[in-house]
Amino acid sequence: MRLSPPELTHGRGRATTRARLTGDGVDHELVFEVPDEWSIHPGSDPFVPTAVYVATAAGAESLTIDRPVSEPLLTGARTAGERYADHLGRPPLEIVGEARPSPRARPAGRRTALFVSRGIDSTCNLILDDRGELEPSPDLALVVTGIDTANEDVVDAELCGQHIAAAGRFGLDAILTRTNVRSLFDSYTPWVIGIGPALAGVGLTLSADLSDVIISSAVADARRFTGAHPDIDPLWGNGLVRFHHLPRDLSRSERVRIVVEDGRGLDFLQVCWDEGPTNCGRCKKCLQTAALIHAYGGDASARFEVPVPSTEDLRRTPPGPTLRDDFIDATAAAGVPSFAQAVAEHRDAPLGGVSPEAVHAIDPDAGRPAELLWSFIAAADDPPIAAATVDHAATTGPGCVVGSSGSSTTHVRTSAMRAAAVTLWHRRADGADAALVVEALSNGSRPVVVTDAATARALRWRLPELLQGLLATVDELPTVLSDAAIDGPRLAGAVRGGGLGWLDELEDTDR
Asked: Which domain range does residue 410 map to?
């Protein structure tokens, strides 16, 4: 993969830097834009974090950077690439580029910035700074469009104005910046892991005027790759600007409690995944936040369409594995045992009739023994698959991994997924199954596409005999999983021997 030299333009009061990332199936122009009165970095530094993440996620062997980058950034980028490769289960990325010497001393008189999005994390940091408990202390808020949402070409003046007004309540002036990285992530890589590199790119774009940039942490557990990451964000410094991942020691529930006790953020919070003017109150993120606000005695009615979730809502749409146990402990301690019990019931429910105790721990860093495998098999969506896979894991002994490929795996160590004996997923209409087959085989795992009986019959009729073992209906899963004669290496050999034309069969079958 290659990162081309940047191009700078000025117009309509904005300064813009552009560079193109190409190769390994990627062809995308990256853009960072800032107000014209601010100095914009003239080199490739702003594009390096996103390029490293995308190249690693795409499985590229190398990333060539055509323009010299600062020496500390190049060193940090290589370390970050190693950490992304480990998590994503990709080969190590070779970064080819010329290092530019860093300044002997950082210029004085520059500013310290905090990214502000009106979420729980950045709002908590605004409060901590107001208390004198955030170090370094920001004097500027950075508002970014094009990271959380993909509509980077249309600046929502009202939304950004609300971000700027929120920062102003805490004495910070703000600037509006723009990027288009979300559209790149949506096309090629898991978006949620790329937030940190994208924010770092904005900070590097402004590194001539900034000395320090604070990226608000998403979770306290560094084992989780979600949003930004405490062991990666600080690596993006270029000798001019330093990055800080804060706070490091507060759980999500503790941050909500701080926001509720302070009170000033309750009428501007924006946590919803839907791009509406308020919080829907029904999605997973809204439910867990509104429930915690209620548990701590706050009033969420100003910003949430459903200010007090029901226990049935929480049972049906509970917090994910990253926040689930924290939520249970916090709501129980706050005197709302019904909320804690609803989520605990979901957590402890049998997977398709199989007890969670049957699931073997496969990663010593996974936290709760069942958590990692639960994430893989997406039990809430596919209970029959869950039952078959857990049965298989229980009978084959500790260390066997049976995984379901899907977006939930972006939150866990994908290096553990490389140990999977079998990778399962439902057939999807978008034709992504072929890519997942290749990915599973490259990880040394046996792929199994779970589909309906009619599609399975049609595909088996058109596929070579050995490759028919890729398919199973839900009823056939126990037999397919126990068939030791069909394994990943044999399938990989069949692929190499017969070419890849059979992939089209997986994509174009008429139901």
From this structure: 356-508
